[in-house]
Records
---
Amino acid sequence: MKRRRDPLTLDLTPVVDVVFILLIFFIITSVFKKEEVALMLDLPTSNAKEIQIKEEQVFIELSVNKLAIKGIEVSFDSLEDNLKAIKNKENSVIVKIDKKVPYERVVKVLDLLQKYSLNNLALVTNEEKK
């Protein structure tokens, strides 16, 4: 004799399987966040050594007509306010500069960094292809 199942109960095994497969799918297809980048820059190449990036470092990006700090587009006045607010002057300042940026804009950013005694500076370049 066969037992009859209660019509109101559901077998949850297939539901758990589907949820598990969806979870795996989303984990595999997700993009892991590397760093906040606001501007698309064409960096110059260099064969300098690679540095380790830490969370407390300040990122500045400079293009021909835009400026960003920590992944947010700002003006030069706003950049100065952000640099003034930095308490630990020993933190590294990572600067990404597009290779087509006029020298005057680069000097303006470097002057602001010097004004607020942020001297631990690193310029980011692309790796030189051999």
---
Amino acid sequence: MKYVTDSKEIQAHMLKGFFVDWPSHPNEETHLKLLENSYRIVLAIDEQIQQVVGFITAISDGVLSAYIPLLEVLPEYQNQGIGSELIRRMMAELDGIYMIDLMCDQELQPYYRKQGMQPASGMIHRNYAAQTGTISKGI
């Protein structure tokens, strides 16, 4: 497995199969754009097939706070430590940032607790009409 922290080597066709169980999801081109526009990324690439098999993104002000909105590993690559390695590498990328937040469903909290995170409460707003990433206001 090769891990990279930029999207220079990535093309949209290398991003197939993500966003499992999303009712509607970004296409590969939009996925590539969200990687390119993130503050930091870490990608897991299966070099034998030249496919991205996992990714994590962070958005940040670069000073005090960062948010990890996405961590995904393709289903056939799960339970191999790839997600844990993506988190470890992202936390190293964000070293020195005061607060690193991540929202997840309650059933995923034990996984993130194993990664050194602690549960917290928060509030969210979701615009499901924009879930594909194709509706934006000049972004």
---
Amino acid sequence: MAKSMPPIADLLDNRQRILVTGGAGFIGGAVVRRLLKESNAIVFNLDKMGYASNLTSIKEVIEELGDTYQSRHYLQIVDLTDIKAVQKAVRIADPDLVIHLAAESHVDRSISSPDVFIESNIIGTYNLLKAVRSNFEQLSQKRRQQFRLHHISTDEVFGSLENEGQFSEITPYYPRSPYSASKAASDHLVRAWHHTYGLPVVLTNCSNNYGPWQFPEKLIPVAILKAIAGDSIPLYGDGLNIRDWLYVEDHVDALLLVACQGTLGRSYCIGGYSEKTNKDIVTTICAQLDKHYPDSAPHAQLIKQVTDRPGHDRRYAIDSSRISSELGWKPRHTFEEGLARTIAWYLLHQDWCKTVNQKISYSKKRLRKQKLTLC
């Protein structure tokens, strides 16, 4: 049976200095907002402020809570591939807890530009581990006993499932894209630093996240925004690829529980108990938007099947029994509740989406220009 989520301040105990990498991203931003709203911890937000980084959601929380919260949020604009900058940032943060979310995560981009993923996800994680270990070894005995590094990964490192079975913590790794391969490598590095150097770590592998503030290049925001605009909604292949969907706030619950109460050296799989085909997701979104914009119904007529991407995994599904039995976690939102909240949020934040979409267009142009230069 799932337990109620403990207060964040109680979970953290005496951990008052929290370093969140990728804290200007979708999941990282949700973690930072929760820490600011529900604890007194000082949050060091390390982010390279790339194309998918955005501080709007954090600024809104700070404005809502008052100026005193500004002094608890420190933005460190650092690329993890810059070892000297990483070492300096970690020294300044002097953390009691590191929540490592920074990663390149878009599969399509990893196929067209794998170098960025190798550098960010593998070299970046190595640099972080090196800097954190150095700082950890200088902590007092009391602080060392409480210190943890939580490395957040993906279920994609396990490969692809057929119609039966679920991923669990003992599933062999079988990554099939440059993205998942780079994340698998970073998982192995974290485990190696635990077993070789005694660095206190925990790991999690999560399923597909969704919710407010997600950068609009992922399936759910793409489908919502395309449908609102009356544009074609792309659907890879036959649309029957299955993912397990996890509402971002439920993921934050799990991340903080594992970070503070998980067994050191252990990994935890986090799923949303919501397996859906991509086609189901898109048609459900269209049906919901028919209610908001009946004059444009049926939005499902905008769905257009496009050529499948290379190496597209068929099915992901997660067995979350370990985190449920050991830590009492279960998602608080059903998929229907989470999706309704997400659609409502995007309907109210179309201006924000237009602004960040301009960053996508710029990024794509920049990548194309870089490719031409290299050729």
---
Amino acid sequence: MAGPQVLLRDVTPADRDRLRVWRNQPDVAQWMYTDAQISEADHARWFAAALSDPARRYWIIELDGEPVGLANLADISPVNRRCAWAYYLASPSVRGKGVGAYVEYWVIEHVFGALALSRLWCEVLVENEAVWKLHESFGFRREALLRQHVWKNGQPRDVVGLGLLADDWVEVREASRERLRAKGYDLT
């Protein structure tokens, strides 16, 4: 029985309009640091900068050939051997199917394998418990509670800071692979 087919492919100029639509969706925007609707001009500036910045990397997440979300690395620092990451699933129909877990695994493998970095970190709004718990299930450790770190809808929001070291990943990698295989994901 074939499981879900998830692919992360590089973002291309053809993805520009799709990303703006996704970023403005209420169920995506609620977890971002900004509240304002993203204008065409603001998005065009962000998109041009995103694709030209060597310290950032963006992938479209596809499920069975359909674009369903975005994953990215930011603040890539080969000198300090670290980077940050984030992702979102823009298609509500794919949530709860293990796609986020597969993306998490893929990004971690890429960061510690292909990029040979030693630290990966992320920030998550504290009320987005499902996501920070997912990160913890892959070995991330809570390293910070950033109080009133962002303002959403005119209210301060706390942010959880999580970090994963390459050494931490070694300890949980096989268990993470087994969980994904049990959901039907091919990790070859």
